[in-house]
């Protein structure tokens, strides 16, 4: 296996995902297969190759610092299930 | 002749001359949707009332002589493109009830022209997939054979156009998600150069690869839609400032002396014999038109697919981190604490393929693996980009098959992620290099459509359209889907109009 069960559990935690034991098994097998496949990239010597993160050469796009109307507060909140006094309501984060 | 079977340019003729109203056109499509949708399942939302209202507005516009190229033309929009006040679900349980408070820039541009939105189309959840089977709501069927997939991820848009549910559709293409379903459904689909069309309002999958593009019934329509949707947008910092060409000016039959590259790598392992033969015949058609066929090689292209799955999944894992249940989307009912709330929310809201890609992407970006996977893939991206640059020194466009196979059976690859990924083997390299590419129907293999892919240099959509148009005029694609019970089930070779609109003589009826 290219990836171990405990690695899958660790990555799930990082990704904020929860899996059943069966799902962990399934993902270990499937991800191993996919990782074996992408390891094909190791056939290539890329020692002196620069990485390309973005294909278009645009850097530092700035706009004028102008005051413009914001989106209506009600519109911003309209898809939230829990809200109070014009704010998003979240679970308690400080004990 | 039915209105719903016409192309954009044909409908525009009729609308301009006031021979039909936008309302009549819209009603024709809404009827058609009711008739075929139970078989095809291409749509997630039908916006009937909104469409009828917009049709009346379009008629007003036409009356006042304020109409433009797309006024009164009905469209279907992939359900990962934001529409204000209209649900945009990404075919995910996560966004089942999400209503965007704003329009994507492309939608804004279409509405300004008086386009009529008929509905939102089904997709693989968050555009991750090649068959539309990963939708949380329904599996779209291929209008050519209801037991087969329409391709993906924009399978709903492609199937809708093949079944005449709209005059055109919008999709998004991250690794082939416009071109591959266009190929499998026998319609025209284009992925423009990265940065040509604003991505503002397109729900992000892999930001450095995603691009919005059109599905149309012919090449002329593709040019017409492109004219409207392109352009710099201050809301998308990756959109580029370029002079807006008139793409319809490239619709010429003359391709004499044009150098067309054929890469042997696009005819490799896994390609179906029928697809190979059909594409090779198409190359002969272009050669007979006076194009120069040049053998080229893109040696690193075989590494495009593994590089793609690393890059796309890495970007997806980061983009999809926003789904926490707080501001919009699904939220868990029962949880222990904040972190648990995130975990339960996301595990309930996302489907399997989305989770698989988030996992792969998180792994590729995690400490200790970043250099080995993510950075490695970005380096391979450079090699592929250089490969294309070198190839384009010898030729003006590159052609080959869009997909190695015709439409496959529903369920055939559903449980084998790797087999599914291979469906994109000829399309991903184009996204990796940010190039424009089109798929146009070029024939049938076992009664199912085969797509011809034409790839161009950055911002050379015009050249692609030139070749596509010349091919289309010389090699009429007359076949039409037979599985949905269109009036004329006979596949004809003499009539030149594509799709189900060949039951009338165009000259007589339109001009």
Shape of chain A: flat
What is the share of helical residues of chain B?
A: 25-40%
Radius of gyration of chain B: 21 Å
Enumerate the strands of the largest sheet of chain B in spatial order, edge to edge or round the barrel.
Answer: 1-3-2-4-6-5-10-11-9-7-8
| Spans of at least 5 consecutive residues with low confidence of chain A | none
Report Rg of chain A: 23 Å
CATH C-level category of the domain at 5-43 in chain A: Mainly Alpha
How widely separated are the two ends of chain A? 41 Å
The mean pLDDT of chain B is: 93
What is the percentage of strand-forming residues of chain B? 5-15%
Output mean pLDDT of chain A: 93
Shape of chain B: globular
Features:
heterodimer, A: 95 residues, mainly alpha, Histone, subunit A, two-stranded antiparallel ribbon, 3 helices, 2 strands, 4% strand, B: 511 residues, alpha/beta, Amidase signature (AS) enzymes, 11-stranded mixed beta sheet, 16 helices, 37% helix, 13% strand, globular, disordered C terminus
Account of the 3D structure:
- The complex is a heterodimer of chains A (95) and B (511).
- Chain A contains 3 helices and 2 strands.
- Chain A has helices spanning 5-14, 21-38, 73-77, and strands spanning 83-84, 87-88.
- A two-stranded antiparallel sheet of chain A has the order 1-2.
- In chain A, strand 1 (83-84) and strand 2 (87-88) form a beta hairpin.
- In chain A, 16% of the residues are buried.
- Chain B has helices spanning 8-16, 22-40, 48-63, 105-113, 155-162, 179-185, 219-229, 273-288, 304-319, 338-349, 352-365, 370-394, 417-421, 428-432, 461-474, 506-510; strands at 43-46, 74-78, 116-121, 168-173, 188-191, 211-216, 259-263, 292-296, 397-401, 437-445, 448-456.
- Helices cover 37% and strands 13% of the residues of chain B.
- Chain B has an 11-stranded mixed sheet, with helices on both faces.
- Chain B is built from 16 helices and 11 strands.
- Chain B is of the alpha/beta class.
- Chain B has one domain: Amidase signature (AS) enzymes (Alpha-Beta Complex).
- In chain B, helix 5 runs parallel beside helix 6 (179-185).
- Classes of the chains: A mainly alpha (95), B alpha/beta (511).
- Chains A and B meet through helix 1 and helix 2 of A and helix 9, helix 10, helix 11 and helix 12 of B.
